[in-house]
């Protein structure tokens, strides 16, 4: 069963989930983790506003439900570093682990080891190719987010024609891959916009900036850039700024970090597709606790997205990501 979460309906959603009759995953007994009220969150990378906002949502919900949650984040968005964090859960694993796998294949084995010790697994944001290990997976509809980005870009350019660059993060990142797919599919409906391809950036703003610099040099008719997450967006803005091309090339970003929001206000970005990471964290905890307490669990949950422009940004400030709770 797949459910769509809408903003401001968290309580209603929880009631709906509890009443849901099909496609549910039973909690089962946790073996060694019975009566354990300890949850863990392993996000993709430390000190990043998307994951900080997710952590805030998860912590508030855990407290409300009488659980504690600790967060261990890798220093970089990197499967080897994230594996170290997973392995460090060691012989005293949490009752449930909320995790954003940084690689849709490489993270399966370490997560499997934790699951083998009785820990319930909940995927938040990114997911494995084979998600069957998780009792629940919560993310934005990233394919739709990519489509929304392409439609937004098409609206921005109107009848003008030109080339479009897509900046992805790291191969194996489920979310940004889905955004690229959605964007590329929708772009086919806009023949005035021609893709010059997808560039990986290793999720490093410096690499994104360099790709933009190179694209500006090789493609004089560059009219738009789709940056599939906040790091690629921040790098793209730097590349455009360095070349004096701010406002001449439309930049549509994903996420709503403080620096992206500032960039939207001062014209570096023309639009942002904001996620609701706090809701993803909150629902991650709700699903984990439901699994632990043998209550109905929903296998797949979709959090809402919001297209934000300079014109509507003040009315959408609740979707801006946090630097701290
Ligand atoms: O866009 C988010 C997240 O959804 C994605 O999976 C990885 O990048 C972010 O954390 C933003 O940097």
UniProtKB/TrEMBL annotation:
It comes from Amycolatopsis bartoniae. Belongs to the bacterial solute-binding protein 2 family. InterPro entries: Peripla_BP_I, SBP_2_dom. Gene3D superfamilies: 3.40.50.2300. It is found in: Cell envelope. This is Sugar ABC transporter substrate-binding protein. Keywords: Signal. Residues 1-27 form the signal peptide. Residues 40-295 form the Periplasmic binding protein domain. GO terms for cellular component: cell envelope. One of its GO terms (molecular function) is carbohydrate binding.
């Amino acid at each position: 069963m797949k459910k769509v979460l809408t903003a401001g309906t968290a309580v209603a959603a929880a009631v709906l989930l509890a009443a849901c009759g099909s496609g549910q995953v039973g909690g089962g007994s946790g073996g060694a983790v019975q009566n354990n009220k300890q949850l863990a969150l392993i996000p993709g990378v430390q000190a990043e506003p998307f994951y900080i906002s997710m952590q805030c949502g998860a912590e508030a919900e855990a407290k409300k439900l009488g659980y504690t949650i600790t967060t261990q984040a890798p220093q970089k968005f990197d499967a080897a570093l994230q594996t170290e964090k997973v392995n460090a859960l060691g012989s005293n694993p949490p009752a449930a682990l909320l995790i954003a796998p940084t690689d849709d294949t490489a993270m399966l084995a370490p997560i499997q080891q934790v699951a083998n010790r009785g820990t319930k697994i909940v995927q938040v944001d990114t997911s494995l190719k084979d998600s069957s290990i998780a009792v629940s997976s919560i993310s934005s509809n990233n394919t739709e987010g990519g489509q929304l980005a392409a439609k937004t870009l098409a609206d921005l350019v109107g009848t003008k024609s030109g080339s479009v660059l897509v900046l992805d993060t790291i191969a194996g990142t489920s979310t940004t891959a889905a955004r690229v797919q959605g964007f590329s599919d929708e772009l086919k409906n806009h023949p005035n916009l021609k893709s010059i391809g997808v560039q990986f950036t290793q999720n490093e703003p410096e690499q994104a900036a360099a790709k933009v610099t190179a694209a500006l040099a090789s493609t004089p008719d560059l009219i738009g850039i789709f940056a599939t997450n906040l790091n690629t967006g921040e790098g793209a803005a730097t590349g455009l700024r360095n070349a004096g091309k701010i406002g001449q090339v439309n930049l549509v970003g994903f996420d709503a970090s403080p620096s992206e929001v500032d960039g939207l206000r001062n014209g570096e970005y023309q639009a942002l597709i904001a996620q609701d990471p706090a809701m993803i964290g909150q629902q991650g905890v709700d699903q984990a606790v439901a699994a632990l307490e043998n209550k109905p669990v929903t296998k797949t949950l979709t959090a809402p997205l919001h297209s934000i422009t300079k014109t509507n940004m003040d009315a959408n400030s609740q979707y801006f990501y946090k630097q701290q709770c």
